[in-house]
Structure formats: C-alpha cells, structure tokens
Amino acid sequence: MSDITLVLLAAGNSTRFTSDVKKQWLMTGDTPIWLHVAEHFSKVETFDNIIIVSSATELNYMKHFASYTYVEGGESRQASLKNALARVKTSHVLVSDVARCCVPESMIHRIIAEKETASCVVPTLAVTDTMYLNDAPIDREQARIIQTPQLSVTTLLKKALQSETLFTDDSSAIASLGEKVHFVQGSSLAHKLTTLEDLQKVTCLKAPSQQTLTGFGIDTHPFETDKKMFLCGVEIDVDYGFKAHSDGDVAIHAVIDALLGAAGMGDIGELYPDTDHTYAGADSKVLLRDTVKRIKSFGFCIGNIDMTIVAESPKINPYKTAMRETLAEILEIRKNFVNIKATTSEKLGFVGRNEGVTVHAVANLTYLNWKTL
Questions:
Q1: Do 48 and 172 share a structural domain?
Q2: How many angstroms separate the CA atoms of 283 and 251, rounded?
C-alpha cells in the first residue's frame, strides 16, 4: 500500500461540452468515463484510497458502480479539491481530472517516481507553436503546457488552498508558497476532454456498448372523489382522481420507475420522495421531464415504452392517442415508440372492485453513441 491518495475530480457541469450527456458519463463499452479512469489508475498503482469528487445529484448513482470514497464537489475546481483533501490522510495526494481520460501508464509512473524530489510533481509538454502574449511574441522555449495528474505533499496543498486566490491547478497553489515544483515529461495522449471536437483525440476510449437495458415499473393508486384525474399526462373526464402525494398520475409513475430501473438509478421514491413537501400535488409530467433530463445526462437514449393500464374504469380507449402523443413529446421519441394497452382485472381484487388503477410499464434504454456526435 502506497502513502498516496488518488483524487479524481468529476464535479464539473460540462458547459463547454454542449451535449445533453455530461462528458464524465459517456460510455466506453459499458463503463462510464469516470469509472474507466478510476479503474485505469488503480491498475497502475496501489493507492491508499481513491476519492471521487462529483456533484450532489450524481453521487448516489455513482455509488452503484464501485466502492470508492465519494465526496460532494463545490462551486469551483478548488472548492471541490478542498472538500476531497479533508478526507485525505496520506502524506501525498495525486490529483487528476476525469476529463483527462487517457493518461498513459508510463506517465503515471514518471510522476510517482519523482515523489521525493519536490513539493509538487507536474507533467508538462513543450510548446511547439509560436506564442504571443497580447501583441508581443514570447520565447516558446521558456513556456510549458501543464497537465494532470499532479502529485503534491498533502499538508502543503491544503495550506496553499486556504488562500483567497483561485488557482487553476495544484502546482500554481504550491508555487505560491515558494515551494519547489518539479516538471516531468507529460504525454500528448493525456488530452483533456473539454469540447465535442476533443472526442476525436481521446483514442483510448472504445465505442459504447450496443446492449439494450430494460426496466420494469408498476404503480397503484386508489380513487379519491372530487379530484382531477390524470393518466399519461392527460386529464380524464370523470369526477374522481387518485389519492396520492402528487397529482397521482399512476401511469407516468410507472413509466418513471421503468426508466430508472433500466438505468439502474433506483426508484421514484428515491428521486421524488412523498415525504418532501416540494412534490405535494406535483404535476407528474414535470417529474417525468426531470427524469428524462437525468437519464440523458447519464449517457442513455430512450428506445421505447410499453405499458398496460389495468382498470375497470375509466375507459381508456378514447384517450389513447392523446396519451401517446403526450408521453412521446416528454420522452422525446416518436409516438410509435409509446405503446399503451388497457385491460380489466375481470372483477377480481382491488382493481376489480373498482377501487383504483394499476399500471405496468416497461422501458428500454441504449447508450448514447458519442461516436456520431
């Protein structure tokens, strides 16, 4: 076991990536990039601990993938790093960005081999193009392109980041203390994934898996008088609705659970708990739109939805077309990919006694093929 902790920063919102999916959730095979990076580093070196820093909305989902230490990020890279450093107990810390997803093994070895030579060890590249600062050329032989990962003495990095100054990397923070920064040879392969165009430069990534992921959802709600009824986002012309914390759209709730099931993201109660007053009387269409946004940000594409509505009443057939169109618009798929079936329970049980409705739904997802972006 080494006296080094690995910190991987993945809390960015990917604003420059200009895609529905966050870059850390692009798939290489069936593995998201952030996990691919963590597994690669762990094969190269045995770390005392591996800390993944991510946004609050992604942490719980990340925990389903692997048993690392997960830390909530901050408003900036520096704030995120400070949050991670609070969990670091080793003498040295190796910090990298998951967007730099193709760091060669030899580069990692070069950095760690120089652990005792300076307070911060930094990989760099020489500048090969002519450079100007404002309107004047500068000597490119004196310039370096700084990369990550960077290896720092933990106590010094913690001290440096107490400053009000915002540093763009760890070496700048360490240098501000007057401490020695040591440069090692970086690699052009360790290109940082920032924009869509950068996808052509990260050669270590495989195309996403073509497998289809299937999820199942089921929900039941009893009737309640003097309340509007909504099914699949469509108002039904009856004088009763569903007893529920939200508007009670039992069909949309089943669809949400099917989508979350296919993505391995838990269930509707985890994302929109009925103990949260925010969702009291909530429009289920809004919840479904939010679910779709989450699904897409994690690198999935929605294939199709199939559902069966089990009810003695109301009659579903007059509303099927409107239901399909409403769901298709929210799911951002063609309406032929939304199938709605209706049946009764032949007078048996809760539904048969005309006390409520049960809906079963199945959803299929595939991984976004970023090769076509």
A1: yes
A2: 13
Q: How far from chain centre, in Å, is Cα 174?
A: 31
CATH number at residue 58: 3.90.550.10
Domain residues for the domain of 322 are 213-372
Nearest to 96 by CA among 40, 141, 135, 56: 40
| Among candidate residues 142, 176, 200, the one where a domain is terminated | 200
Q: pLDDT tens digits, residue range 112-139? A: 999 999 999 999 999 989 999 999 999 9
Which pair of structure tokens corresponds to residue 347? 């007078």
* Within a domain: 207: no
Which pLDDT score, from 0 to 100, does residue 81 have? 97
Give the strand pairing for 213-225 and 69-72. Answer: unpaired
- Bridging pattern class, strands 69-72 and 49-54: parallel
Residues 6+ apart with CB under 8 A from 362: 214, 215, 216, 217, 258, 305, 306, 307
Alpha carbon of 260 to those of 33, 106, 217, 295, 348: distances in Å? 20, 40, 9, 8, 30
- Please state the domain count of the chain: 2
The answer to whether 213 touches 262, Cβ cutoff 8 Å, is yes
pLDDT in tens, 268-295: 999 998 888 888 778 999 999 999 999 9
In a domain, 337, yes or no: yes
Task: Say if 142 falls within a structural domain.
Answer: yes
